[in-house]
Amino acid sequence: MTRKQYDRLNGGLPLSLPRSDNLSLSHSDNLSLSRREFLRLSALLTGAVALPRLAAAANPDDPVRIGYLPITDASPLLVAHAQKLFEAQGLAVETPRLFRSWAQIVEAFMAGQVNVVHLLSPMTVWARYGSHLAAKVVAWNHMSGSALTVGLNIQSIKDLGGKKVAVPFWYSIHNVVLQHLLRENGLTVVTKPAAALQANEVALTVMAPPDMGPALANGAIAGFIVAEPFNAAAEINGIGRVLRFTGDVWRDHACCVVTLHERDLKDRPEWSQKVVNAIVNAQHWLRNNREAGAQLLAKDAPGKYTPFPPAVLARVLAPEAGRQQQYVAVGAIRHPEWKDQRIDFQPYPFPSYTEQLVKFLKLTQVEGDNRFLAALDPAFAARDLVDDRFVKNAIAALGGLKAFGLPEKFTRAETIVA
Fold it and tell me: Which domain holds residue 302?
């Protein structure tokens, strides 16, 4: 398969890195570009840069300005816009702004160009405690929605020994879950690989999601772990298969979370409440209208929110029961009793998840300075990083947690396996 053939499926839209039509783009080129992108975001997320930009008071007349990456993680934000759920709350809203990298979306958020974003949950830990960014998580945006996709010759986690695997970002749930799986299978993570890897070593590299499929097809990597629908696209193209779904490793885990400026939470609490109401209502709608959601977000829909066709999005949002059974048969799903959806929607940010995330981040290798994690108390982070006042009100307005298929309690125990 050529790069252009693959791009025709995913729309050819880069999320982070400059795209090339040259199929010989090397792994080292991708690694260099990815590291540059990570360093750019690291430079942005320093206290000296971040704090002054967010120091000004909120403008009470600012409309809802959504920033998003075109992946299924953004579904609730986009559905809330498409279904006019913000307007139903009496809010003015602009057309959502599509960004092609996490660095771009964070930079726009810091500058006040956007004020409602979805961010990777580990990224919010890094931003707040490693960089003192004045922002808080107000709700989960979605659960699960990611997978480890590998070449057709890979049959188990252990088969990744001596090979390279791509992650979308160091501070991502994808990197956290992948490294957990590798540790549990006796494999050693290498973030700066030497010329040759030992049989028990797995080299990790940050790679833009649109580059992952072509890299897998060309043998530059043995697998990748990333948000949907890139796993679904690889399946449909016949270049890879899902080895494990992340939601089958960490049950009902959050991936992206809704993040707002602290200044809006403080200066515009009514506005903030209405924003969260709209997003929670969108999640509730998606749970009951999955196929319609896939159509709504497709590249040919009026909103043109994503570059993906309905078939790719439907494979994620509204998977066929028969396909789920196939995943059980091959071991991609090992816990069918969990009844985990390929992507699901539930807005409450359980404190136990944030606590466990911080514990895992302390064990997770990343590039850059992560010394801030050593002194970070998981229980403190769960209280301080998240402001759950607004999401609790929004859930109550829908009749409580039972509207999302959950028991009526705001606590849970985390379930994590290998």
Answer: 42-144+254-404
Contact status, residue 131 vs residue 106, Cβ threshold 8 Å: no
Report d(CA 369, CA 167) in Å as an integer: 18
Residues in the chain: 418
* pLDDT of amino acid 45: 72
Q: How many domains does the chain have?
A: 2
**pLDDT profile of the chain (418 residues), mean per 10:** 50 36 37 63 62 62 96 97 98 96 89 96 95 95 98 97 95 98 98 85 92 95 97 96 98 98 97 98 98 97 96 96 94 96 98 98 94 97 98 98 97 97
**Alpha carbons 178 and 59: distance in angstroms, whole number:** 41
- Whole-structure pTM value: 0.90
Note whether 118 and 258 are within 8 A (CB).
yes
Query: How distant is the alpha carbon of residue 389 from its chain centre?
Result: 23
pLDDT at residue number 368: 87
pLDDT on residue 8 = 53
Query: Has residue 416 been placed in a domain?
Result: no
Burial of 97 (0-12, 13-18, 19+ CB in 10 A): middle
Q: Kindly give the interhelix angle for 102-110 and 27-44, rounded to the nearest 10 degrees.
A: 10
Q: End of a domain among 225, 248, 271?
A: 248
167's enclosing H/E stretch is: strand 163-167
Where residue 163 sits, what CATH number does that domain have? 3.40.190.10
Cβ contacts of residue 18 below 8 Å, gap of 6+?
A: 33
Nearest 5 degrees, angle CA 31-CA 36-CA 39? 125
DSSP letter assigned to residue 256: E
Q: Which two structure tokens, joined as six digits, stand for 20?
A: 């090339």
Q: How buried is 134 (Cβ within 10 angstroms: 0-12 exposed, 13-18 middle, 19+ buried)?
A: middle
Distance CA 114, CA 96 (A): 9
Q: Read out DSSP for 207-230?
A: --HHHHHHHHHTTS-SEEEEETTH
258 and 359 part of one domain: yes
